[in-house]
Amino acid sequence: MRYAAWRKKMVEEQVVARGITDPRIVAAMIEVPRHFFLDSALAEQAYGDHSLPIGEGQTMTQPYVVAFLLDQLRLSGRERVLEIGMGSGYLTALLSRLAERVYAVEKYRSLAILARQRLERQDCHNVVVKIFDGTYGWSDEAPFDAIVVSAAARVPPKPLLEQLRPGGVMMLPLEEEDRQQYLCRITREDEKKFRREKLIPCKFVKLVGRYGSQ
Q1: Tens-digit pLDDT profile for residues 163-187
Q2: Nearest to 32 by CA among 86, 87, 95
Q3: From the CB of residue 18, how many other CB atoms can be counted at a distance below 10 Å?
Q4: Residue ranges per domain, the chain?
Q5: What is the C-alpha R_g of the chain?
Q6: 145 with 79: CB under 8 angstroms?
Q7: Which of these, 106, 111, 112, 207, could form a disulfide with 86 (CB 3.0-4.6 Å)?
Q8: What is the residue-wise DSSP string for 12-41?
Q9: How many CB atoms lie within 10 A of CB 81?
Q10: What is the pLDDT of residue 213?
Q11: How do 144-149 and 127-131 pair as beta strands?
Q12: For 103-140, how does the pLDDT look when each residue is reduced to its tens digit (9 = 90+)?
């Protein structure tokens, strides 16, 4: 019961109080047990206003940034979403409650296997997991209505742009020359035109892969 109380407090103080009030996002974040997607030693830190380590040099993003990202996607529940860098599976679980189907790609096998097990225990049956270099996307299942990238790149990976349907939205952190990162929203307006919006400062691990930062 204490985790449920901490979760409710997290949403009230870190999400709703900062302007994220979409009822579907609020309900999903109250429902999904964030601590369940962490090592048990970190469970009591799960609902704090910070990121947390999950292994392989990766992190679980702080709650407000997760909520902000979801809010900017503006999902209706009918979308096919591609997630690059599923990490712990926490964001994946939230997406599974907000979209019709989630295609989650993770480079690190150990993280992907553990995340898939956790998702199954949370009854996230509309999620498909692939262990692969996420900067290539998932061409066999493209195009996607929305794409989420949970690691920072210097430029948006070209394959991901190509796999976003016209009218679709991509959320990803981009790193500028001064190494400051900003969460950005890219909207594909037509076959050749993309609109980029710089939203809030953030800090993510670097996107690793063929079309990543390293």
Answers
A1: 999 999 999 999 998 889 999 999 9
A2: 95
A3: 13
A4: 61-202
A5: 16
A6: yes
A7: 106
A8: IIIIGGGT---HHHHHHHHHS-GGGGS-GG
A9: 25
A10: 67
A11: unpaired
A12: 999 999 999 999 999 999 999 999 999 999 999 999 99
pTM given for the model: 0.96
- Helical ranges in the chain per DSSP H: 2-10, 23-31, 63-73, 90-98, 109-121, 158-162
Strands 144-149 and 52-55: unpaired
What are the φ and ψ backbone dihedral angles of 208, each rounded to 5 degrees? -105, 135
- In CATH terms, the fold of domain 61-202 is Rossmann fold (3.40.50)
The per-residue pLDDT for range 34-70, each reduced to its tens digit, is: 999 999 999 999 999 999 999 999 999 999 999 999 9
The torsion angles phi and psi of 62, rounded to 5 degrees, stand at -60, 150
Of the candidates 133, 134, 141, 131, the residue with the CA atom closest to the CA atom of residue 164: 141
Residues in the chain: 214
pLDDT of residue 35: 97
Task: Look at residue 214 in the predicted model and tell me its pLDDT.
Answer: 53
pLDDT of residue 15: 98
Distance CA 154, CA 175 (A): 5
Check if the beta carbon of residue 54 is closer than 8 Å to that of residue 87.
yes
Whole-number Å distance between alpha carbons of 172 and 120 = 26
Cα-Cα end-to-end distance for the chain? 43
